[in-house]
Design goal:
This protein is mostly beta strands.
Length: 128
């Protein structure tokens, strides 16, 4: 259910750079977002009928939980900013992320559809 792709990390005395090598993320994205989340806060608890989303933890640590709304299959994992992965959510898979770290969590998200505030493809579904 949870699809992950490893990102490439390069590090030297200046710091590090992490890059995506999956062309589907770039060519399939029409919208992006980023959020800052306080420790203990949960984001998400919803699903989409059409949207595909890719997320990357830029800073911090999250508990990411998914549940297929049809089969009720659940998956839970901890993802940190040093894992260097992008993770994908499919349509009809409810998802939520909780900041389980001691510091602010920042994630970057890419979406395959432009956000239309008049026709939201977001439906509440509690997984955490």
């Amino acid at each position: 259910m949870l699809i992950t792709k490893k990102l490439r990390r390069y590090a030297d005395n200046r710091g590090f750079l992490v890059e995506n090598t999956d062309p589907d993320i770039i060519t399939g994205s029409k919208h992006f977002l980023y959020t800052a989340t306080t420790p203990g806060i949960i984001r998400g608890n919803h699903y989409h009928e059409h949207k595909i989303e890719w997320f990357c933890i830029i800073k911090g640590k999250c508990r990411f939980v998914t549940e297929d709304i049809t089969t009720k299959q659940r998956e839970e994992t901890i993802i940190t900013d040093t894992d260097d992965i992008v993770f994908r959510t499919e349509p009809l898979v409810a998802h939520a992320m909780e900041n389980v770290g001691d510091t602010e969590m920042i994630f970057l998200g890419f979406v395959n559809e432009v956000l239309d505030h008049n026709k939201l493809d977001t439906f509440t579904y509690k997984v955490i």
